[in-house]
Amino acid sequence: MAEKYFKYVILGGGVSAGYAVREFVNQGVKPGELAIISKESVAPYERPALSKAYFFPQGPARLPGFHVCAGTGGDILLPEWYSAKGISLILSTEIVKADLASKTLTSANGDMFKYQILIIATGSTATKLTDHGVPGADAKNIFYLRDIEEAETLAKAIKAENRKVVIVGGGYIGLELSAVMKINNLDVTMVYPGPWCMPRLFTAELASFYEGYYASKGVQIIKGTAAAGFNSDTNGDVKEVKLKNERVLEADIVVVGVGGRPLTTLFKGQLEEDKGGFKTDAFFKTSVPEVYAVGDVASFPMKLYNDTRRVEHVDHAHKSAEQAVKGIFASEQGKLIDEYDYLPYFYSRAFDLSWQFYGDNVGEAVLFGDNNPASENPKFGSYWIKDGKVMGVFLENGSAAENKAIAKVARLQPAVDSLDLLATDALNFACNI
Ligand code: FDA
Ligand code: NAD
């Protein structure tokens, strides 16, 4: 059992860990001072690739091509980069005990890691149907997608021909995975309980475009019901999905995307929590001195909306990590930095579609543009208006300049006199702000 000390430890080796390390180097961290401890076996990578290019039949994304910071056009940080900078990349190491009072982390094999400053970047885990007691949900070939090992197992499983895939869930994973499975020529059925897909962001009008488009690509969609159980063969391989509405679907492969849960259990009772994550200030300091939380596990002050939020998206993972590290170095030097002032940004890509959303989807939604899935070049979006001001903007198929314009509008929250005029003015409204 070894015991090691590092001035700075990042717990977790995902997206925010990778961007935090780059910022540590920018800030002049010295060799030997910093360690990343990750239960994954590879250096930090851009997790979004796993539900998109990782499954492309031609030229799929593979490591080292999508290590951080490929996602933002930065240098790709290879394992050699960490050793050249004197940063300890401690992989395949799961921390099973954390004691903040003695500043000690203990791994599954009993190694102990002591630190002065800890950054918690443990991210989320996929919600399992077994957690909900769904009968038969432990059958083989029922997949979840959170890390590269799971992506690789699923990529191998779809290699056999004529496979029937059922996707359970109509959120991010459901929409992105059903698209890549279809691109692989598989027979794909999506099942979700809501009246339309991605209900946490899409309005009925936005969703109707995506549902129509997916149907035109051959994805079968069953709405308003959920998986109630699974039947498997004598090998234990899944063969059928039983739905709550009594329908039974044949399946060789099931991919489940029914939401995630932030990984906070290691610190239960040791840190103040809020909205399922660790409560932080605008510099990602938690309730315990010298302990920071970033990415999916941070519940931080959202200055723009004057409330506290937890955000499970990659842009916030990058920015929160950089903010925390800048704050650590600033306080060591007795300097001040600006508070985190985050503008929510989510995006997705599937088939040849690509959307971006900025801001808050609250208030009345105003659809604009052509959202007919049969159109040759559909382009549409939605504004959300509350108290006479634009709060959020969604755009499918926007150019770089148009996406920049909608981000600006969501940040500035201009006043809107007439919702009817806004609908006709459409993207011009955003581009003229
Ligand atoms: P992240 O999950 O990246 O990293 C957590 C790390 O901590 C992992 O390495 C994990 O193994 C490690 N860890 C956890 N507990 C540990 C322990 N006890 N001991 C050691 N290590 C431990 N967002 C977006 O905006 N656009 C997109 O297109 C996508 N696409 C996407 C696809 C898929 C498949 C997923 C799963 C997620 C996305 N996301 C996304 C969400 C985005 O990837 C997510 O918000 C960030 O990865 C969060 O970064 P974190 O660093 O917080 O967690
Ligand atoms: P999600 O919350 O986006 O979607 C979950 C979906 O599952 C919802 O549509 C919900 O109605 C449905 N659902 C819930 N219970 C169900 C049940 N019993 N049967 C069928 N459907 C059910 O979560 P996700 O898609 O699993 O994504 C997991 C995490 O990965 C999230 O943090 C997400 O932000 C992240 N992610 C983000 C992106 C992106 O930003 N482009 C892409 C992939 C993953």
UniProtKB/TrEMBL annotation:
Instruction: Identify which top EC class this enzyme belongs to.
Output: oxidoreductase
- Please state the Enzyme Commission number of this protein: 1.6.5.4
Family label: Belongs to the FAD-dependent oxidoreductase family.
| Species name | Daucus carota subsp. sativus (Carrot)
Name listed for the protein in its UniProt record: monodehydroascorbate reductase (NADH)
Stored InterPro entries: FAD-oxidoreductase/Apoptosis, FAD/NAD-bd_sf, FAD/NAD-binding_dom, FAD/NAD-linked_Rdtase_dimer_sf, MDHAR3-like_C
Keyword list (alphabetical) reads: FAD, Flavoprotein, NAD, NADP, Oxidoreductase, Redox-active center
GO MF annotations for this entry?
A: monodehydroascorbate reductase (NADH) activity
Which superkingdom is the protein from? Eukaryota
Q: What does this protein do?
A: Catalyzes the conversion of monodehydroascorbate to ascorbate, oxidizing NADH in the process.
Q: Which reaction does it catalyse?
A: 2 monodehydro-L-ascorbate radical + NADH + H(+) = 2 L-ascorbate + NAD(+)
User: What Pfam families does the database record attribute to this sequence?
Assistant: MDHAR3-like_C (PF21791), Pyr_redox_2 (PF07992)
Q: Which cofactor does it need?
A: FAD
Q: Name one GO cellular component term.
A: cytoplasm
